[in-house]
Amino acid sequence: MKTLVPLSDTTIRSLKPGDPRKRLSDGDGLYLLPSVNGGKHGWRLDYTFEARRKTISLGTYPATSLKLAREKAKTAREQVAAGIDPSEARKQAKKLAEEKVVAQERLEAGLPVLGSFEEVARDWFDYRKREWAGNYASKVLRRLEVDVFPFIGARPVGEITPPELLTVLRNIEKRGVIETAHRAHESCSRIFRHAIGLGKAKSDPARDLKGLLSKSIAKHFPAITEPVRFGELLRACEGYAGTHIVRAALKLAPMLLLRPGELRHARWQEFDLDNATWIVPAARMKRTLEGKRNGKPHIVALPHQALQVLRELKQITGGGEMVFRGERHHHRPMSENTVNAAMRAMGFPADEVVGHGFRATARTMLAERLDVKESVIEAQLAHDVPDALGDAYTRTEVLQHRREMLQLWADYLDELRLGTTAVNREVRLAA
Known about the structure:
Radius of gyration: 38 Å
Largest sheet: 4 strands, antiparallel
CATH class of the largest domain: Mainly Alpha
Strand order of the largest sheet: 1-2-3-4
Distance between the termini: 127 Å
Strand content: 5-15%
Number of domains: 3
Shape: rod-shaped
CATH topology of the largest domain: hpI Integrase, Chain A
CATH architecture of the largest domain: Orthogonal Bundle
């Protein structure tokens, strides 16, 4: 039997073009193919993995020397012995190297790493934001950018664990913003479910954190619900020494149950003063994006006290578009802080009342003091009101009830302002 003679550098360097030998074996599957790559000699290794004969390239000579080729072959044989296919290991290593290059390029371009929590989160956000109002979408993204991405944004989304996410959420809690922590938890859960759908994660670690965050305590807008004190505020609004426009807003805000933004963005074209009706466009209401685009407008039946305020105000701002125009820029509404600033100037602190609190005042007093049905109040507040009789009932009979309620409420506010509530209450009860 012929004995195999291992290769030597001398043997390899002596190879001439046109050498008839197809291969030069070094033993144990390692061999050299003469002039296989543009005149360069190529190293190959044959091995058996899972009963299949396979071959891998180990480079070309002289860039890959005989010594280096043997080291590479040894490493490959050790992989086979450990149950690892050298060919697949090489492909995986190449893939990881390419991903590393792509990751660096994305990092330099300011883009999140592929497969990272941030990359999946932004994909989820881009898909969902079509359903949201712009202001809400901005809050969701800002919350992620400030409170979540800096800590787990670069992590592979499928590798994030419940304890890791809990640390992020409790860091938010430590700032005292419990509600923000809960909202971040909810967004993260939706992002992980999105990742599962994309095949980038197998579970939702946020799901396992239910009950581990501090309970969120609902914070309500400060509001006055004591009649005598509210009467003092109404008298202060009536005698406000600022501009007529602000005084009008201070009179209407408690009366019409609208949110501050819905009121201050009012346009004259929305009013039918002859029929005592204000139609607030759906786009200005607090609704989903779909509701803003295709929802029905909100109807406000104007009591005669509101009509008087609006007719006086129209003499001042009726020549323009905005009902409550800004002091400097008449094509813009007055500032969102105007009503609150006026109440501060009149001596009513922020922890006692804010403009948005007028809705809570009305909600409480209409039910407790004037015995108005909750469904009618909620409808005027533009809250969803489940109604078995359907939308036709809501828009006809309830609208009439809302008109009656708003007039009753305006009359009651007059009584509080004048201090005649008790007398008028006795008259109504006697009737």
